[in-house]
Each structure stands twice: as C-alpha cells, then as structure tokens.
From TrEMBL:
SUPFAM superfamilies: P-loop containing nucleoside triphosphate hydrolases. Pfam families: Rv3660c_N. It comes from the Bacteria. PANTHER family: SEPTUM SITE DETERMINING PROTEIN, SEPTUM SITE-DETERMINING PROTEIN MIND HOMOLOG, CHLOROPLASTIC-RELATED. One of its GO terms (biological process) is negative regulation of cell division. It comes from Prauserella muralis. GO terms for cellular component: cytoplasmic side of plasma membrane; cytosol. Keywords: ATP-binding, Helicase, Hydrolase, Nucleotide-binding. GO terms for molecular function: ATP binding; ATP hydrolysis activity; helicase activity. This is Helicase.
Length: 359
C-alpha cells in the first residue's frame, strides 16, 4: 500500500499493539508504528487514520498536536473513567474496546487498504427456475461480458452442489483458492487480498476474479459470502453471484445485497411452474427478481408469457448459442459477441439499478 495511506499507530500497551497488528495483517494493511505521538508529529496531520491507546493519548497534551479527525483510542476491555479523559485530550473520534469492537477496528483498517469507491459496486444474483436452466452459464457470461467491456468483476459461486463454476469457464486447473480453501476468520477481507488469492483472467482493460466452489468439502456460509461480496462492492466491482435454487448457507447474504436477481426460466410450462416455486422461496426478496426466458420454446411461449406465468417482469430472451454446449464440454468458454449468451448478458447489465453504498 502507498506510504501516505498507512495508518499511524502510537500504542504503548504491547497487548493492544499485538491485537492491532493481527487485525491489520488480516486485511493486508501495513501500519506505521511509532513509540509515542510526539515522535509522530510530522505524520500526525497526514496519516489517514491514527490509532493510539490510553498511555500514548495521555501524552498528547504535552505534544501540543493540532486537532484532527480519524483518531481512535484502542484498549482492551470496557473503557475506564480515565479512558474518556484521554480520548478528549487526544481528540479521538471513538474508543475501540477490544474484543467487542474488533469488527469496527477491522473495518477502519480495511478501508486504508482500498478506500471505498463512491456509490460502491453492483451486486447481481443469478439462479435457475429449474434444474439445468443454465443459470451458471449465464452468470459466467455476464461476468465475462462486463470484463470484456473494460469492467472489473468478481464472480462468486454459492452453489456447492453445482460442480464448480470454474468448470464452466474452463478454469478448473487455474491456480488459486476455492471455497473449501478460503478461510475468512475475521469477518472482513479486502478486494486486493482476494485478487491475490483467487484465479483471475484479464480481458483487455477489464479483469475477472473467480471464487468457485470445489469438487468436495463444504460450501460457504452467510458470513463468508457477506465478507467477499462486501469486498467487491467497496472496491467498485460488479459482483455476480451464482445461487442454488433453494435458499441455504450463503444465499441470504447475497439476496440482501443484490440490486437485481435474475431467474433463468426455460420456455416450458413445467419450468414456469417450478420457477414460481423458486420465486416463492425468495420471500421478501421477490421484488428484485426479473425473469429471463431461455429458448427454444417448444410450444411457442414468448418471454412475456414466461414472465407472466412466474409473476415477475421480463428481461427478454436467453437464446440458444449454437456450439456453446460442445465448447463447454471441451473446457472452452468464449461467448460470441453477437451470440445469444452475450446479448442476454448485455440486457441484464443494462437492467442493473444504481448500486447501494457499500458497508
């Protein structure tokens, strides 16, 4: 990270310092540590964040430091009466009491690694109206299409029984972590750390990072998915999540954050009935759902017919791409720009609402 973006740590308590360094390492943050605030006068005004403790803050009165924002007083356990006096002396914005306030400190350190992009990134969920609807292929197509257009994307596989979305991309041999090997113990992770750990590909000016489920082991839970999706949002990425048809571990975290949920529905009567059941299972999130009809239509159903049968607005068609199935079996994922998958992917991208501010 850039020197000017390093937080300044002036902490005398060795136990508190160890906790700060542990949390900083968890998010890839490299703080600048000094012995006391007086010795850091040159960095006091420039550092984006200052962390101090009771003993160091007490010395601030003699250091004659100017007032500034972005100062946290960190201590172990609940604040004592003297802690509040020290916080006033140093002009701290808040007292961080460990371990209860660990998440707040972790968030502050993570933001030093990559400052949140204004507005944040989009979160898009894709799931099938019935088995074999093609949701995983669409999710991969959307991510690749956005990357080809110069975007930076994160593709997240949330379906542990789907075989792994890296297989769709032909990236099963690519180096990098999958869900069974990715451990997020702190509840917070930076996008830069994910970029370093995950398989990724470049597409001109765009880039795609992929977090796939593996062929064995458990899938992700809500906390892990939330941490990954939030990292992508903070970094301004398009986060595309491939969801299972039934809600389970990891799905609620995505649904809460998604601005759009795409339900892929083959243009068949039975598939429409199945998709309506999937929609009902989404509960309060059903208002975000749009139907994408997948052709061909054996009996002439239109995309509006499919959407009406399911009970949601239509996003149009996902038309058949000749040769795509054979290419996928051979480990080749290269959607033709004018093909049905790329066309549907652009339609989905165009329907994304303005993103919420990342947390």
């Amino acid at each position: 990270m850039q020197t000017d973006q390093r937080p300044l740590v002036a902490v005398a308590d060795g136990t508190v310092l160890d906790e700060i360094l542990r949390l900083a390492a968890a998010v890839g943050c490299e703080p600048e540590c000094v012995s006391d605030l007086g010795a850091a006068r040159g960095r006091w005004a420039r550092a984006p964040l200052v962390l101090t403790d009771d003993e160091s803050a007490a010395s601030a009165a003699t250091a004659d430091l100017p007032r500034r924002t972005g100062v946290l007083l960190v201590r172990k356990g609940p604040p004592a009466a003297e802690s509040w006096k020290h916080a006033v002396t140093v002009g701290a914005d808040a007292i961080v009491a460990l371990p209860d306030d660990e998440d707040a400190l972790l968030a502050a350190l993570a933001d030093m690694v990559e400052a949140p992009e204004p507005g944040g990134g989009h979160v898009l969920a894709v799931l099938g109206g019935r088995g074999g609807a093609g949701a995983s292929v669409l999710a991969a197509g959307i991510a690749v299409t956005a990357a080809r257009a110069g975007g930076r994307c994160l593709l997240v596989d949330c379906d542990p029984l789907g075989g792994g979305i890296d297989l769709v991309l032909g990236a099963e041999l690519s180096e990098g972590l999958r869900w069974p090997g990715l451990r997020i113990g702190s509840g917070r992770v930076s996008m830069s750390a994910l970029d370093d750990a995950l398989p990724g590909t470049r597409h001109g000016e765009g880039a795609l990072a992929v977090l796939s489920c593996g062929r064995e082991g458990p899938g992700p839970d809500d906390a892990a998915v939330a941490a990954v999706v939030d990292a992508g949002r903070r970094a301004g990425r398009l986060v595309v999540c491939d969801l299972p048809r039934r809600r389970g571990p990891g799905t609620d975290a995505v649904l809460e954050r998604a601005g759009l949920v795409v339900l892929v529905v083959p243009a068949e009567v039975r598939a429409c009935v199945a998709a309506a059941r999937v929609l009902a299972d989404l509960g309060d999130h059903a208002g975000k759902v749009r139907a994408l009809a997948r052709g061909p239509a054996p009996d002439g159903l239109t995309s509006d017919d499919v959407a009406d049968a399911v009970g949601v607005p239509s996003l149009g068609w996902l038309r058949r791409d000749r040769g795509l199935g054979r290419a996928l079996e051979r480990g080749v994922f290269d959607p033709r720009p004018g093909g049905g998958l790329a066309t549907a992917s652009r339609a989905v991208l165009g329907a994304l609402p303005a993103p919420d501010h990342p947390q």
